[in-house]
Amino acid sequence: MDRHDVDWQGYFPAFVTPFTEDGALDLDTLAALVEHYVAEGMHGIVVNGTCGEWFSQSEEERRQVAEAAVGAAAGRLTVLVGCTSYRAGEVADLATHALGAGADGVLVSPPPYVKLFAPEVVAFYEDVSSRVSGPITVYNWPYGAGIDIDTELADRLADVEHVVAIKDSTPSLEQFFATSRRVRDRVRVFGPYLSEAGLEELREHGGDGTVGGGSLWGRPDPTYYEQVWAGDFEAARPHAVRSDALFPQLWLPGGWAGKYGSYQSQLKELMRMLGQPAGHVRAPRLPITDPDSLAEMRAVLVSAGLLEGEPQAVQAPA
């Protein structure tokens, strides 16, 4: 399999897993969030990834979330299901279930904590591929896996059977572009193309899409890619500019955490402020409850034009 066996492209929100305040799965809110993304014209969703708090779920809950998301999407969105785990057999069990439930593909990072060496990373994905009969997305998540899949390693992984895409969350923009140019002939590449630098990369070398933490902007995120596909790069540019301006006000460099709390905690708070279905975080994540932090987050959304209110200067925490 390779990139030509799938049609994945555009903006895919990294889907949060909604929990109730007491920590139970909230599948009603999950279904509402799917409907929200369908209404906003998203091209796909990625379930049970980093934003989906897979690490706080049992394997049975991960299966429930996969089934619920696929069922709610009902073919209207591409659905990729995160299946990261510590051993290839566990990954394969989750992936086989997700694909059997109707997912379009699966997303797998190197095992967290272990910090594999490059030959071990290749062997791991080869092992997973030998057990999974469906399209696999390599997930480069340095902050979680403890390693950064560089361009040379990505080049090797692009040749693994069943690998059809890479979601590259390296903090190095230069490395990302180098990887994109190296492997796009074989796999689809998702990364920070929704930026001014990314827009130029799309213009000069091409690219497939972005898997972003939710979608605070809503419809403008998929519209950006539709404008690019139409060749109207100047129409797409304003959204790239405002996305570049918003990101550093809310997220730490590399996008691994929020300025006011963990990535998942901050994203869900922001989504609720915008009226998006989000639910709550589950332990070990904690909600953001500091009134000053919540006020500053809201002020950022107001200044960006995402919420109505009186714009005000925001002093980001040190």
TrEMBL record:
Highest taxon of the lineage: Bacteria
Coiled coil: none
Annotated positions binding pyruvate: 211
Pfam assignment, any one: DHDPS
Keyword Lyase: yes
SUPFAM superfamilies, A to Z: Aldolase
Active-site annotation: 139 (proton donor/acceptor), 167 (schiff-base intermediate with substrate)
Family matches, as InterPro entries: Aldolase_TIM (IPR013785), DapA-like (IPR002220)
Lyase as UniProt keyword: yes
Keywords: Lyase
Gene Ontology molecular function: any one: 4-hydroxy-tetrahydrodipicolinate synthase activity
Family: Belongs to the DapA family.
Protein name (Swiss-Prot/TrEMBL): Dihydrodipicolinate synthase family protein
